[in-house]
Amino acid sequence: MSKIRITQVRSQIGRLKNQKRTLEALGLRKMNQTVEHEASATILGMVNKVQHLISVEEIK
């Protein structure tokens, strides 16, 4: 499986609780924090829920 790098680019202040929990489940707690995950269906679904708060790039 390929890996993806996820960076939080927008604040979670004022967002819905489920969006805050999704960011936390991805391992993002602060602005500009970056994490790497396998591109599984579960992770991609979570990324889709908060796509307006993060940037995603594929790692070769």
Please summarize what this structure is.
The chain is α+β, with helices and mostly antiparallel strands.
SSE blueprint:
Layout: E1 3-8, H1 17-26, E2 34-38, H2 41-49, E3 54-59
Antiparallel strand pairs: 1-2, 1-3
Helix pairs in contact: 1-2
Features:
60 residues; alpha+beta; 3 strands; 2 helices; globular
Count the beta strands. Answer: 3
Q: Uncertain segments of ≥5 residues (pLDDT<50)? A: none
Globally, the shape reads globular
Instruction: Report mean pLDDT, rounded to a whole number.
Output: 97
What is the helical fraction, as a range of percent?
A: 25-40%
Description:
The protein has a three-stranded antiparallel sheet, with no helix packed on it. The protein is of the alpha+beta class. The protein is 32% helix and 28% strand. It has two helices and three strands. The longest helix is centred in the middle third of the chain and has 10 residues. α1 packs across α2.
